[in-house]
DNA sequence: GCAAAAGTGTTTTGGCTACACCCATGG
DNA sequence: CCATGGGTGTAGCCAAAACACTTTTGC
């Protein structure tokens, strides 16, 4: 056992809560679970759990997500720590909030969720326990701001996607209509997509070309400090 | 004593660390203290302390700052939580980092600091303990990004200030030269300053007009979602 | 042949940048 | 009268926004 220098200080419970954003056709969604323990058992809640001694917060967030959904090793970003004294009526708990982006139909988990977990359209989500509503709102704001500097959302789409799908995604995140031509021009300027020879024939008679995210190009541009504003 | 619902979970020490930015004539500075307890006693460190049971993190940050410097009730912003397992060799500690902006010559504390505390020019700061260097770097990045959306820095200046001082401040934060005329034009467009009838005569023979931040105008524009990019 | 979505360029506009000279004053 | 910092306006450029028609093909 390591020497304990700060014996007299108060210790607290530290939790992580995950806002998992998903994209499904035209809708931005969030993954929620029905809480199966007290207090507030049976109410909708974010996916969360407690930090353990042998892990850091990023690891805790991934572990919690994996345990509750089967989703593994995805990119998660810490964004704020909530510490109001009575935020959790069960016991004094400080919670570090993370958000993540995934494709709702990812084969990673075959779109199958554990019992009690469910995707909700962002604007039709139920009331959540504690300060979780606040967390979701702040996560949305972060996500919006992030679109202004990073090519967000390739995690939210399948590997191959159409321009229209990408535009729908940006429109859901930013909650506004975008001009089709301007959007395509800007995305092409970023020069981080490969246009494939395949077409998606499900959306129209003409069919629309599929694109794939080119991670190599993206990383090169990232190094150069490129700005990915859409 | 409240019911404890989560008895079996690990508890941890939660600290706050404060990056206090100050502005002094032409230099952006950061306030550091010589650590007077083990481990790493005698080395330079951020101002920090542990969260207590009866306070939230914002309160803890202000209490810690007040205890170590006498500075009271200033605006502090939480920006990241550090949780690497061995970040503090003394004991497993998670630390929530805050940054704040103040005028180095504020009468609030008469510019007098407690023993062991000292202002350092940002680019001449000493090596810090633990992950504190990392924290300072992230805080600087936040501060820079913040200039693009909020009229930062009125906290960093005295109540009355000249355009030149404001420009110096932005130049130190962004670490670049700005064009005098463009800067003044942009600031005037924001329309959140009152030009006073007074002049500051210390900087030149002609003297330069003093300005004051108009908080009312600022808040009105803030409500409307105005963007304060400089 | 028509409905439904895909694909494609140009023009306009507003904001950002670059830039140089006169002013007021104390010494 | 001169040295020092203060104060002021404009022209050119580029990036963002607005905008409409043709193509394809399954039905």
Automatic annotation (TrEMBL), chains A, B:
Which residue range or ranges hold the Nudix hydrolase domain? 13-144
Q: Which branch of life, at top level?
A: Bacteria
Asked if the Swiss-Prot or TrEMBL record annotates the protein with the keyword Hydrolase, the reply is yes
GO MF terms on file?
Answer: hydrolase activity
Does the UniProt entry include the keyword DNA damage? Answer: no
What Gene3D superfamilies does the database record attribute to this sequence? Nucleoside Triphosphate Pyrophosphohydrolase, Winged helix-like DNA-binding domain superfamily/Winged helix DNA-binding domain
Name the InterPro entries for this protein.
Answer: NUDIX_hydrolase-like_dom_sf, NUDIX_hydrolase_dom, WH-like_DNA-bd_sf, WH_DNA-bd_sf, WHD_NrtR
Key words, A-Z: Hydrolase
**Entry-linked Pfam families:** NUDIX, WHD_NrtR
Q: Give the protein's recorded name.
A: NUDIX hydrolase
The species this protein was found in: Aureibaculum marinum
Organismal lineage: Bacteria, Pseudomonadati, Bacteroidota, Flavobacteriia, Flavobacteriales
């Amino acid at each position: 056992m390591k020497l304990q220098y700060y014996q007299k200080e108060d210790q607290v419970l530290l939790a992580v809560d995950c806002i998992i954003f998903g994209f499904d056709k035209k809708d931005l969604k969030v993954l929620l679970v029905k809480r199966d323990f007290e207090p507030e058992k049976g109410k909708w809640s974010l996916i969360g759990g407690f930090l353990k001694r042998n892990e850091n917060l990023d690891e805790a967030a991934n572990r919690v997500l994996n345990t509750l959904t089967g989703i593994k090793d995805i990119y998660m970003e810490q964004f704020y720590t909530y510490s109001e004294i009575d935020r959790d009526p069960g016991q004094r708990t400080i919670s570090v909030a993370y958000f993540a982006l995934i494709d709702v139909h990812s084969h990673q988990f075959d779109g199958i969720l554990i019992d009690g977990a469910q995707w909700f359209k962002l604007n039709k989500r139920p009331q959540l326990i504690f300060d979780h509503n606040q967390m979701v709102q702040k996560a949305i704001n972060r996500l919006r701001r992030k679109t202004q500097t990073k090519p967000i959302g390739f995690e939210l789409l399948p590997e191959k996607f159409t321009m229209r799908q990408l535009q729908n995604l940006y429109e859901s995140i930013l909650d506004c209509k975008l001009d089709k031509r301007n959007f395509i021009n800007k995305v092409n300027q970023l020069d981080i997509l490969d246009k494939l020879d395949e077409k998606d024939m499900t959306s129209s008679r003409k069919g629309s070309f599929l694109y794939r995210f080119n991670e190599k190009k993206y990383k090169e541009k990232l190094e150069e400090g490129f700005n990915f504003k859409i």
